[in-house]
Amino acid sequence: MLGRKGAEALAKVRKGFPQAVLVCGGGTRLADELSSMNVDRFVVAADAATTEVADAGIAVDMIVTDLDGIVEDQISLNSSGTVAFIHAHGDNLPALERYAGRFTGPVVGTCQCPPPSGLFNFGGFTDGDRAACICAELGARDLQLAGFDFERPSGKEGRSLEVKRRKLQWAKEILETLAQNGVKITYPTP
User: Fold this and answer.
1) Domain span at 25
2) Given CA atoms 8, 10, 13, 16 in this order, what sign does their dihedral have?
3) Tell me, what's the pLDDT at 152?
4) pLDDT score at 166
């Protein structure tokens, strides 16, 4: 669906990627955490967080999505130059077919398997920890996280909160592995 577009966008975003990044997840406390922060670094929004970050008046520099957030907002930001990492997995093929071609700005395709030509696997399981893995792969060594709540997931219609809670435990383990590998990870102080 993306052709060579992904490799070209990845090469551009890799050049001069910042050491310090704010990664915003879709947790229920994201708005509160953002309102108490002085955002002075590159901002990455994980899927549904994109709309909330933009609504807070914060520039979104990068989006990591599997296309189950407010995709129209992601498409709009991407058309203005925000790079989008679009993830393909087993159950989002209809969303990929519907939306992927509408992203007219820089796009990188990702997957969770050995990547076929044109896709990349940076690691990660949920949009939030995948965003952290992508940033670490691109060279970031200081990740500040906002909107990450591993115990109280935000719900989506038709989705089990218990399944989401189990997914978030994997996300937490992946972030801990990044930290063990030298990436500084901090969370907002309550």
Assistant:
1) 5-186
2) negative
3) 75
4) 85
Residue 176, CB-side half-sphere exposure with 13 Å CA sphere: 7
DSSP string, 118-156: TEE----SSHHHHHHHHHHHHT--EEEEES--SSSPPP-
Mean pLDDT in consecutive groups of 10 residues from the start of the chain, 190 residues: 82 95 94 93 96 96 96 98 94 93 96 92 95 98 94 71 83 95 89
Residue 14 vs residues 31, 81, 100, 135, 145: alpha-carbon distances, Å: 29, 15, 22, 9, 20
Joined tokens for residue 157:
């219609």
What are the tokens at 170?
Answer: 């994997």
CATH number at residue 174: 3.40.50
Which residues, in sequence order, are CB contacts of 175 under 8 Å at separation 6+?
129, 132, 145, 148, 185
Per-residue pLDDT, 5: 80
Asked if 135 contacts 128 with a C-beta cutoff of 8 angstroms, the reply is no
Look at the pTM and tell me if it is higher than 0.85.
yes
Domains in the chain: how many in total? 1
